[in-house]
Amino acid sequence: MTASQPPPLEAVAGDITTQRVDAVVNAANTSLLGGGGVDGAIHRAAGPSLLAECQELRRTRYPAGLPVGEAVATGAGDLPCRWVIHTVGPNRRAGQTDPAMLASCFESSLREAVRVGARSVAFPAISAGIYGWDIEEVARMAVDTVGGSDLLDHLSTVRFVLFGREALAAFESRLSARSA
Ligand code: AR6
Is the pLDDT at 115 greater than 50, yes or no? Predict the structure, then answer.
């Protein structure tokens, strides 16, 4: 893959904690201190060094927490990747309904991944679980934002890793609409 040919985006069913990519994106919360869903799975699989790094980030860079739509990288502890990129999706259940905030998560996460030197990145369906966004809308924002990013030139793989048939179908449908 050369720099002039951005990578195809791919969607797979699976568990993001087992992905052999350089960086996985975590659908975190503002506290950066763990939670349920993908966040819980990533922290469990990564082990305590990830939480320690997140606590240090809170102390040094984000005393008020990581803002919605931003992203920050840490190491990955025991995960089979090098970095975890933590981002905070908008919480629809709390009235955060602006799709631009969701787009910002995907764009900021890509930028942070490229900044640390990742060439392959796996994303979950940010905000499509506990934060209550419709999977179709998440698929649209994810595929359109990542697919339209200049940062793709720096990457060899971008993979959406989805839980469940409905989520996979939503992403596959948006990906095929894009390439049609
Ligand atoms: N691999 C891939 N996808 C997963 C996995 C996994 N291991 N586990 C869940 N999903 P969510 P959010 C899917 O709730 O909506 C946490 O408590 C899941 O089916 O993880 O952004 C944080 O700390 C759904 O499609 O993230 C925050 O407080 C998608 O990942 C809050 O949840 C996202 O679901 C963030 O909520």
Answer: yes
Which residue from 38, 70, 126, 131 has its CB within 8 A of the most atoms of ligand 1, so it is best to mutate? 38
> Helix or strand or coil: residue 160?
strand
The whole-model pTM stands at: 0.97
Quick one: which of 7, 15, 6 has its CA closest to 167?
15
Please tell me the distance from the alpha carbon of residue 90 to that of residue 9, in angstroms, as a whole number: 23
Count CA within 13 A, CB hemisphere, residue 94: 8
DSSP for 110-126 reads HHHHHHHT-SEEEE--T
Domains of the chain, each with CATH number or no CATH: 9-179 (3.40.220.10)
| Residue 23, H or E segment | strand 23-28
ipTM score for this prediction: 0.99
DSSP state of 93: G
- In whole angstroms, give the CA distance from residue 144 to residue 149: 8
Pairing of strands 71-75, 83-88: antiparallel
Q: In the numeric block, which tokens belong to residue 164?
A: 């469940």
Distance 90 CA to ligand 1 centre (A): 12
d(CA 143, CA 171): 7
179 Cα to the center of ligand 1, angstroms: 27
What tokens were used for 89?
């999706």
